[in-house]
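Figure caption, in words: inputs first, then the predicted bound structure.
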Amino acid sequence: MNLRLSYYGWMVTRRLVKSGLLHLGDTRENDVLLDLWTGFSTPYVNSPLHNSLLAAAVVELTAETIGRDEIQLRYNRTPFEHLEKIIFEFTTFCNFNCDHCYNAQVPRVTESNPKLLAEAADTFIRMGIRRFDFVGGEVSRYGTGWLDLVEHIRAQGEDIIISLYTNGWWLEQENFAAAGQFFVSDQAYLTELVRRGVNYVTFSLDGQNEEHDVSRHQVGLYRKILNGFEKVKCAGLAPRVSLLVRPNWTEEQIISFLAESATLIYDLAPTLPERKRALRLSLDPTNSISSFIDIGNGAGDERVQFPILEKNEHALYCRNFYRLSPSLTIKANGELATCRLSQAGEGYGNLHERPLVEILNHFDEAFVYQLHASRSLEEYLPLVDRSLFGNAFTHLCSLRSIVTLLARKMHEQGVLPKDSAAVQRINREVAILTGHG
Ligand SMILES: C[S@@+](CC[C@H](N)C(=O)[O-])C[C@H]1O[C@@H](n2cnc3c(N)ncnc32)[C@H](O)[C@@H]1O
Ligand code: SF4
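Bound structure (iron/sulfur cluster present):
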């Protein structure tokens, strides 16, 4: 048998090489990693060194018949090569029920063992990841223990970027409980976020003024958030936004929406053209901008743009299922997920059931990985029950998620396409999850 780097080991070695920490001759372990990194095959010997690298899952055994080119091809296909950030969902509980929320029908759960997430963060940091987002649900309200995890991550380096996504419910509140802690004011809350090591507070906005407040069912929230940017800055944090762009908006509306937040966030002169201010915000990767996705509470939106075409007329597969870019999500139930819509991106493994490194090293064996990488998702398109889901979607990701869920559930339950009663039952299960039930 020979040794080769595992996916995890390839990432760890790349980080060491990039940081200039691997030098030939320093240690015998470094020599093995460098040999493998540069394509030399290393025959396995039953030695403490090889066994400890195997136990750490940095390397794995491979047959001697597997040549250098094949190993190089595998290295070139490392699913995590372009991974930049980890999203901790942490909780699916929320104190709002927004009109557009893609996760409205997903079961409510909060991570019961945050220690697992701390260990996961350490693993990702060893792989070179320097960015962590806490998203939810509403982590700030229901994510008990999330700030301990922030503190743990912060201790690994000042350059790590940690963001909280929030609906802003705590702004202008007094004497409130947030994720198991008590605060006398929003300023006190922000002071605690700084103390624990958060960098960015990212507020969601779904439109300007009333449009945001109506979709969030919260009168005056848009103004509170815009005023909140300054409070966040005064506390020593950076405000950011997660924007929802609606399909019916004109270009001018979109630019005005982005420019209004940009002016306050980056202290831009209001005399600067709106387009330039909007560009400043959109080019900063610590903000996020998403088109409205008609799934969950947003399902059944009338402004449909994509009819369900015949098989092979869509590019229905999504690269993110097998070449993650930029993020991987750890769901509140412990599942690793490549897509955050409903439960579509799950199916690779669960932190509560298998060690993270083992899941990462076998990522390409997951059915959902192969479904997208082999472009076979469209085979399942004719099985989508249009009487439940309709004939058209506003966002192609809605259809992708539905077909992915249908295919995965059929695979997990051993259902064949010709078993129309079982396919119908699974269609109904998926419809309930995605807001079409
Ligand atoms: C699920 S929320 C969780 C964070 C927090 N509760 C909030 O709303 O800021 C994360 C982001 O997803 C966005 N989002 C939710 N449903 C969406 C949809 N159907 N289409 C596009 N973005 C959506 C939200 O607006 C928010 O910015
Ligand atoms: S978008 Fe955020 S605030 Fe609104 S219901 Fe979903 S998780 Fe809650």
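Residues 94, 100-103, 135-136, 138, 165-167, 204, 206, 242, 244, 290, 292-293, 295-296, 298 surround S-adenosylmethionine (ligand 1) (CB under 6 Å).
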